[in-house]
Amino acid sequence: MDLRTRIKREADQCVKCGLCLPQCPTYAKTLDEGDSPRGRIALMQALAEERLPAAGRLAYHLDRCLACRACERACPSGVSYGPLIDSARALLEQRSPPRRGGSWLHAGLLAWTAGGPGRRRIAGRLLRLYRASGLRRMLRASGLLARLPRLARLDGLLPERAPAPGRRRTYYPPVGTARGQVALFTGCMTDLLDPDILNASLRLLRLAGYGVHVPPAQGCCGALHLHAGGLDRADALARRNLSAFNALPVDAVLYTASGCGATLREYPAAPGGGGAFTAPVVDVTHFLADLEWPARLSPAPLPRRAAIQDPCLQRNVLRDTTPPYRLLARIPALETVALPGNERCCGAAGAYMLEQPEMSDALRADKLEALRGCGAGLLVSSNIGCAIHLAAGLRLSGSDVEVVHPVVLLDRQVRAGAGAGNGRAVSGVD
């Protein structure tokens, strides 16, 4: 099915009732109908029917969409807004290819994520060199970054600590009695910016009795390309991942970032028409929360309050926000609360935080204000994009609140419990 037909067929399901308007973060900020779901759907219909040019205000309003899909969850007509906006952006790219040409940073990001593990290792080395050599401090002090706003934006999102992802083995055997085999999807951003999430997942899964496969042929889930209108590249990435994982005899394919998980689970419905995984695709927090844990895994108490941020795709596409709460309930003395305003996007939305900084920061400001009001010393997020966006905002505000993935927090307490003599030590598990 060609893109115009796909857009018209799906857009015609929208009856323009307006029930989506209160759910849309961008409409709430601007009160501009062009920034509402039904307004954007009307623009998509005009694009598909060639009643409006693929430029100007039409492209402006479609680019400002977060693709958070809160509207999709609220729609009484069942409009599949996610595939619809992806198809419209692909049609924009076909009809007006140079429209993103000015964003060299966005183009570079797409080119990098299309590569394999070798490119990620090179990027990791460059990131560590950028920080350790003093180049970062020099650029900040020189004022040069102020004249390059896109580069300054990227610099502000990078973590202060430069982690070392290193090379991963293709298989990690279970500790103790074997209970099964799983595969771990590493993603592109997680391994580069916060490999502790993957290390913690590996430790916990192995201690729970699972052998973990990490296929080296896997790559980016394709979400960034899909949302930028690059259907061919997104489809190629999907096929590469399906080939890498479907060859493994595993009980589940586990992911650590909800944004990746939503994309992986929607491969069969993607505009490019990919395929399906042969094993269930499951959030690692969901998988661990549902396990009957061995008695030797006794997390140490943590008498603190943690606010949990629900990523948009976890809420609106995967439709289950409970796993982080259930998993962290295993930590004695830890108080968990939902971050107020969880129904609203934080403004990260993949490359959106680079491409639409004003709207992205306005939405983040709401989250930081909500965090200050709930008195939490920890902010828990299960999506790497949300985490780096929120952490950057906290650094700018001078806050010492730590942003942490739920498996990292649990792994810390498990290791602390083992160190205190509560069960088997975990040294040597890495």
Percent of residues in helical segments? Answer: 40-55%
Output the radius of gyration: 22 Å
As for the CATH topology of the domain at 305-417, it is Rossmann fold
Shape: globular
CATH architecture of the domain at 305-417: 3-Layer(aba) Sandwich
Span between termini: 47 Å
Largest sheet: 5 strands, mixed
Can you count the helices?
Answer: 22
Strand order of the largest sheet: 1-3-2-4-5
Structural class: alpha/beta
User: Briefly, what CATH class of the domain at 305-417?
Assistant: Alpha Beta
Q: How large a portion of the residues is in β-strands, by DSSP E?
A: 5-15%
Low-confidence stretches: 422-428
What is the average of the pLDDT values?
A: 89
Number of E-type strands? 9
Describe the protein:
- There is one protein chain.
- This protein has 430 residues and is α/β, with parallel strands linked by helices.
- Among the domains are: 3-100, Fumarate Reductase Iron-sulfur Protein, Chain B, domain 2 (Orthogonal Bundle); 305-417, 3-Layer(aba) Sandwich (Rossmann fold), CATH 3.40.50.
- It has helices spanning 3-11, 25-30, 37-48, 56-63, 70-74, 81-95, 104-113, 117-132, 135-142, 149-157, 189-193, 196-207, 223-227, 231-246, 258-265, 284-290, 312-316, 323-328, 352-355, 357-374, 384-397, 406-419; strands at 171-172, 180-185, 210-213, 252-255, 281-283, 305-309, 335-338, 378-381, 402-404.
- It is globular, with a radius of gyration of 22 Å.
